[in-house]
Amino acid sequence: MVLSEISSSDEDFQNFYDNETGEIVPDSESEQEIDPLKEVLRNKMWTYNPREDIEFKKGQLFTNVDAFRAALKDYVIQKEFPIKRLKNEKIRCTAICDVAGCTWRIHASPIADSVIFMIKTYTPEHTCVMDNKNRETTSDWMAKKLLAVMRTHPHLSKKDIEVEMLKYGVHPSIQQVYRAKQKAREEIESTHSESYSKLPKYDVLLRQHNPGSICKIHYDRSNLLVEPRFLRLFISFKGQKDGFLVGCRSFVRFDGCHLKGSFGGVLLTAVTLDANNSIFSIAFAIVNGLKFAYEQLLSFAIGRYCCRHIYSNFRSQFPGMLLTSFFWQAAKSYDAIGFNETMQRIKDMNIEAWRYLSKIPVSAWARHAFSIEMKCDHVTNNFTESFNAWIGDLRGQPILTLVEGLRKKFMKKLHKR
Ligand SMILES: [Zn+2]
User: Fold this and answer.
1) Across 213-227, 277-291, 396-410, which has the greatest mean pLDDT?
2) How does residue 344 score in pLDDT terms, banded at 50, 70 and 90?
3) Mean pLDDT score of the chain
4) How far, in Å, CA of 23 to CA of 11, rounded?
5) Which residue in 11, 18, 12 sits closest to 216, CA to CA?
6) pLDDT at 295
7) How far is the CA of 126 from the centre of ligand 1 (A)?
8) C-alpha 409 – ligand 1 centre gap (Å)
9) What confidence score (pLDDT) does residue 119 get?
10) Chain centre to alpha carbon of residue 341
11) 3-state class of 319 per DSSP?
């Protein structure tokens, strides 16, 4: 579902885009099968929410025994008390607080379908003395220190964290390490999702302050009850677009790198060479899956600028709906046969138009003739390395910081030229 889409103020470009949207549309409008049992259970089913502390209740459901075990483990780390598992089987889990005489106790076992786990009895109160205050402070403090590191290295090990803390002369306990890591991760995840949720606003701002830029955000939403899920973002800043129009080469290649943040994703960029033979980036895409990304960048990069450029000259000399549609048909043809057939039609219709187009190198405007070099991140070469170095710390940043960072880096580069 395309929730948001803008193109340049240029009318032709806009039209071209509109024609194209059919190619890049939704992925899953597929109906979801509804399981009535699951529907009933959904309300009571425990779901992991990194932003909230875990709370247990009698009657609470877990998708299976492992989900319950994981939640229990997190709970114990969160509350920092010693636990003793009296039973830890597929058919029952019983645990108590491991301080002699404490009343905290939880017991869970499967319901009728023998998979879904339910908390059958729960005594949440501790009668033991828990001194959480100091630990709280320490793990909060540690989490703050960890934030910067974990933005770029989300999967720090216990050992890594201990090493980090040693820099401050702190020797944390294992529980403090877990708790601090958890807190830092929650913080990072919430800034990441907040950042994603601000994307549409960014799109509007970009339109206002950087008119002529192209920004397309694609979401996936299987039904109206769920939040839209980010699929990909496609951006070509005005400076990139214009720079490419001036240089306009048919050479395009792709590079990408995995983003390091907790949301993952891939950053792709289409690049060409400018007049000084230095690398010039034309467009970016940040995607959750690669399926459409290459295709989208590809059609953007090879088709749009040169083609559009040639097209506007062509149209001013040879106006007419039919010629226009033949032009795009030829430009977008995937093979030489289709291209030649269409060129023949143009020739039959208007020999001058055909002559005009024939003089332009095919590789400058026809899709089938582009020499495209596709690279992805696992192919190591100098360029990819320098690209990764260029991106630097941005790889671990929330999406908006990343996009803005790219824009700034890009502007700087433009300025230097
Ligand atoms: Zn206790």
Assistant:
1) 396-410
2) very high
3) 74
4) 20
5) 18
6) 59
7) 4
8) 54
9) 95
10) 41
11) coil
pLDDT at position 265 over 90: no
What order of strands is seen across the sheet that includes strand 279-287? Answer: 2-6, 214-220, 229-236, 279-287, 266-273, 252-258, 372-373
Distance 104 CA to ligand 1 centre (A): 6
Ligand 1 centroid–CA 185 distance in Å is 27
Distance 98 CA to ligand 1 centre (A): 7
Q: Which residue has the higher pLDDT, 96 or 33?
A: 96
Ligand 1 center from residue 116 Cα (angstroms): 27
Backbone angles phi, psi at 121, to 5 degrees: -135, 145
Dist. CA 393–CA 408, nearest whole Å: 14
Report how far ligand 1's centroid is from the alpha carbon of 105 (Å). 9
Residue ranges per structural domain of the chain = 2-28+199-416, 36-123, 133-196
- What separation in Å is there between the alpha carbon of 102 and the centre of ligand 1? 5
User: 328: part of which helix (H) or strand (E)?
Assistant: helix 321-332
Centroid of ligand 1 to alpha carbon of 135 (angstroms)? 16
3 state DSSP class of 201: helix
What is the per-residue DSSP string for 95-144?
EEESSTT---EEEEEE-TTSSSEEEEEEE----S----HHHHHHHHHHHH
Residues 6+ apart with CB under 8 A from 245: 305, 309
CA distance 141 to 176: 10
Classify 233 as helix, strand or coil: strand
| 71 Cα: distance to centroid of ligand 1 (angstroms) | 18
CA 12 – ligand 1 centroid, Å: 70
- Give the distance (Å) from ligand 1 centre to CA of residue 168: 32
Q: In angstroms, what is the span from residue 79 Cα to ligand 1's centroid?
A: 10
Q: HSE on the CB side for 3, CA within 13 Å? A: 18
For residues 246 and 242, what is the distance between their CA atoms, to the nearest angstrom? 6
